[in-house]
Each structure stands twice: as structure tokens, then as C-alpha cells.
Specification:
Blueprint: H1 3-34, H2 55-80
């Protein structure tokens, strides 16, 4: 087999693989769209942006959670005695 024929055969094989990969990618994108997450070709989300919470809000939530657990543990301890 000469070199040109081998290269032509390799090119055809790679084109088939590329077509299969494109079809799989389209299927994955279709599934993502059905789940509500439309994605651009660059991989970035389209539509709803991820919400960002401020440091103060995180601190308030953390403080409230600690107080809630402290109250829970105190009531639990009170019930054992």
C-alpha cells in the first residue's frame, strides 16, 4: 500500500470518528437542554446565572445555624436529666 492511499484511508477513518463524536455531543447537549441547562459551545451557561452570596449573608446564616444547633443540643441535654 502506498503512502497516499494510507493517508487517505486514515483521513476517512478520522472523519468517521469526528462524525460519531459530533452526534454524541449533540445528544449530550440535547439532554442538557431537556434538563433545563442550555450550554453554549464554549461550555458557559446561558440563561440563569449562579447566585452569589455576600460574606455578610454567609456570616448571618452561619451564626443562625450555630444558634439553632446550640438550642437543639441544650434541649436534648435538658431532656436527658
Amino acid at each position: 500500500m502506498n503512502i497516499l492511499a494510507a493517508l487517505t484511508q486514515a483521513e476517512a477513518k478520522l472523519k468517521k470518528q469526528a462524525d460519531r463524536a459530533r452526534k454524541q455531543l449533540d445528544a449530550v447537549r440535547g439532554a442538557m437542554k431537556a434538563l433545563g441547562r442550555e450550554v453554549a459551545s464554549g461550555g458557559k451557561r446561558i440563561g440563569k446565572k449562579k447566585r452569589k452570596m455576600s460574606a455578610a449573608a454567609r456570616a448571618r446564616i452561619g451564626k443562625a445555624t450555630k444558634l439553632r444547633w446550640a438550642k437543639f443540643r441544650a434541649e436534648k441535654k435538658k431532656g436527658k436529666n
